[in-house]
Amino acid sequence: MEEIRLNKYLSQMGICSRREADRLIESGNVLVDGQKAFMGMKIRENQRVTCNGRWVGQTDPEHTSGAARPKAVLLAVNKPKGVVCTTSDKDRALNIVQMVDYPVRVYPVGRLDKDSEGLIFLTNQGELVNKIMRGAAGHEKEYVVLIDRPVTHDFAKKMEAGIYLKELDVTTRPCRVFRSGEREFHIILTQGLNRQIRRMCETLGCHVKNLKRIRIMNVTLGSLKAGAFRKVTPKEQEVLYRLLEGPAGKGEASWKKNLEE
Known about the structure:
Mean pLDDT: 84
Order of helices and strands: EHHEEEEEEHEEHEHEEEEHEEEHH
Strand content: 25-35%
Shape: elongated
């Protein structure tokens, strides 16, 4: 019987992403046939796996064959300020999984800062997480940003060209910026560095007062209220997967056209 890497199995069964699976394995929270798993381990279909004390893929631990993959879930969530996107309790704040309280185990795709708000995905599809999170993927995310000074033409052009971030020793990728108010602008990024927009603004001498993500690739926040969620529609998923399978950074500009096809 064909073997599969344990981290991939946990991801496919909707437990967590592969990266999180590696952390759980390394910390000793995953057992295979009653023994602690190890990094890089491969398993067969008839082996019993537990994660954090719970059986994985089997409702009856005595029945070890034919473990079915859970039904795929992909949610669009409007994260409010003050909610964190980690599942640890070190922030002592409500995390997004607790907030949504979905009946199927889901986890966030990427993060939004505690002080930021807007669109984030929750899913139980590990492979989808891996595709979206690849650093070189170049897929678009759009934000609305309010700063503490007027948005000038010079400011927008500098943001678009790329900003050197001393703390991270990196220059941000070229992006698109357009003014939407005296102190408000939209920015479309194809990367997700730690607190990237806030760092970019601070480098240019201003501070972010409010930051809201309104789009991830072809999926938009729309009128979804803060703290609410919805299922990503089959048509949205079709276009999303098409974009993920395409060349890095290609296709987002025509996502509206794809939706109409």
